[in-house]
């Protein structure tokens, strides 16, 4: 394990660059902070290119953690240097770098009667991460990120997902490419829409089902209204006329789970 005590070290400079989308694109890498998140990434088959540790780690705990890792380059950083690269401040004491994913639609391999989420132009990384947590809990088969409006590799997405971005298959594409994929695989497309008249619990979600949810500010675009087999809404009984997109996702997804449990 190599010791690093200077922020001018090339590895440290690279990690700091990975905090920005431009740096992630340049290096074709992203980083994951925190023991739990790194472990989920490893369990999902990802192989780190480097792992960096905070020198505050308890020796026994560090030894146990390292024993679970594949062979990779490891670095032990002083507190000051680790604080410079850490997105989460004092919360994380380990940071791992991974190569960017293949995010093409053709790499998805879906089972029969799959349940898929389509997320159009989601803006907030925290919401994106929360939706992945819901998808993981519900057993969603894949997430299609359509016309992305936030960088999937943003550290806040990974943090908010608690590492479930590594357990739920996903792909990124344009609206048109995502629609073509769904049509080719004979999905029923249900788009959530405030002006819809059909409650979400009134449609059949037992077969190949795609649930489309839109941006926090504007909801779904006319594209997904036009191409939906049906538009659906969550009935609202209070003063608010809409929900946070991650909450709306949970409500609609678990309705699909409920229906499928009755088969």
Explain what you see:
- This protein has 263 residues and is α/β, with parallel strands linked by helices.
- It has helices at 10-17, 21-27, 35-43, 59-66, 79-85, 125-138, 155-161, 175-184, 222-227, 245-261, and strands spanning 2-4, 29-33, 50-54, 73-77, 94-99, 115-120, 142-146, 170-173, 188-192, 198-199, 209-213, 230-233.
- The strands form two sheets. A seven-stranded parallel sheet has the order 8-7-6-11-9-12-10, sandwiched between helices.
- Helix 6 runs parallel beside helix 7 (155-161) and helix 6 (125-138) runs parallel beside helix 10.
- The mean pLDDT is 92.
Amino-to-carboxy terminus distance: 54 Å
Radius of gyration, taken over Cα atoms and rounded to an integer in Å: 20 Å
* Helix-residue proportion: 25-40%
Q: Averaged pLDDT, please?
A: 92
**Count of discrete alpha- or pi-helical segments spanning 4 or more residues:** 10
Largest sheet: 7 strands, parallel
Secondary structure category: alpha/beta
User: What overall form do the CA principal axes indicate?
Assistant: elongated
SSE ordering = EHHEHEHEHEEHEHEHEEEHEH
* Number of DSSP strand runs: 12
Low-pLDDT parts are none
Taken as a percent bin, the fraction of beta residues is 15-25%
Strand order of the largest sheet: 8-7-6-11-9-12-10
In short:
The chain is α/β, with parallel strands linked by helices.
What are the key terms here?
263 residues; alpha/beta; seven-stranded parallel β-sheet; five-stranded mixed β-sheet; 12 strands; 35% helix
List the topology elements:
Elements: E1 2-4, H1 10-17, H2 21-27, E2 29-33, H3 35-43, E3 50-54, H4 59-66, E4 73-77, H5 79-85, E5 94-99, E6 115-120, H6 125-138, E7 142-146, H7 155-161, E8 170-173, H8 175-184, E9 188-192, E10 198-199, E11 209-213, H9 222-227, E12 230-233, H10 245-261
Parallel strand pairs: 1-4, 3-4, 6-7, 6-11, 7-8, 9-11, 9-12, 10-12
Antiparallel strand pairs: 2-5, 3-5
Helix pairs in contact: 6-7, 6-10
């Amino acid at each position: 394990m190599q010791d690093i005590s200077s922020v001018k070290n090339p590895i440290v400079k690279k990690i700091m660059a990975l905090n920005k989308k431009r740096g992630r694109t340049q290096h074709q890498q992203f980083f994951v902070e925190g023991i739990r998140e790194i472990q989920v990434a490893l369990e999902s088959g990802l192989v780190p290119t480097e792992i960096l540790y905070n020198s505050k780690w308890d020796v026994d705990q560090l030894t146990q953690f390292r024993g679970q890792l594949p062979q990779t380059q490891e670095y032990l950083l002083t507190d000051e240097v680790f604080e410079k690269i850490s997105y989460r401040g004092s919360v994380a004491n380990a940071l791992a770098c991974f190569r960017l994913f293949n995010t093409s639609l053709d790499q998805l391999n879906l089972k029969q009667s799959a349940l898929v989420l389509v997320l159009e132009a989601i803006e907030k990384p925290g919401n994106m991460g929360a939706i992945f947590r819901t998808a993981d809990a519900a057993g969603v088969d894949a997430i299609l990120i359509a016309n992305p409006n936030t960088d999937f590799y943003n550290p806040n997405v990974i943090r908010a997902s608690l590492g479930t971005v590594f357990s739920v298959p996903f792909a990124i594409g344009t609206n048109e490419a995502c629609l073509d994929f769904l049509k080719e695989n004979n999905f029923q497309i249900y788009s959530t829409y405030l002006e819809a008249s059909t409650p979400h619990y009134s449609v059949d979600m037992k077969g190949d089902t795609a649930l489309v949810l839109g941006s926090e500010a504007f909801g779904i675009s006319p594209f997904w209204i036009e191409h939906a087999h049906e538009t659906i809404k969550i009935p609202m009984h209070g003063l608010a006329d809409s929900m946070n997109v991650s909450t709306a996702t949970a409500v609609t997804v678990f309705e699909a789970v409920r229906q499928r449990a009755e088969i």
